[in-house]
Amino acid sequence: MNRRFIVAGAFFGLTAVLLGAFGAHGLKESLSESSLASFETGIRFQMYHSFLLLILGVLKLNSSKTHNWLFYLICLGVVLFSGSIYLLSTADITGIELGKFALVTPVGGSLLIIAWSILLLSFIKLKKK
């Protein structure tokens, strides 16, 4: 088992549940339907990738270098993608304006796409038994 993957997966899962509950109960009256839907998209992607980190924490890939890349790409991708969605969708109530940083979301998404691509290539390269 890889402790850092499991810890990161559990952390992202925990915070996704907390943010989901906060969104459903604390933000429902404050956000528009489209902003709330965006917020929920951030939560959904964060939760998907928390599961991925947990799975990768128990898998042994061929290369530890690949494992390291996956860890950093997924964690940074989640923070940039979901984090920017949270900030963008709550901008009206937080006063945080991210207009200049709107590209953070696609950068985070691109990092997640790269991580999934690396994972796919790793699985393709697995030796047949």
TrEMBL record:
Reading the lineage from the top rank, the first entry is Bacteria
Keyword Transmembrane in the entry? The reply is yes
Transmembrane ranges, per UniProt, are: 47-62, 69-89, 101-124
Q: What protein family is recorded?
A: Belongs to the UPF0382 family.
Keywords of this entry? Membrane, Transmembrane, Transmembrane helix
Which cellular components does GO assign to this protein?
plasma membrane
Q: What is this protein called?
A: DUF423 domain-containing protein
Renumbered to this chain, the signal peptide range is: none
Keyword Kinase found: no
Supply the InterPro entries for this chain.
DUF423
Per the record, membrane topology reads: Multi-pass membrane protein
Q: What is its main location?
A: membrane
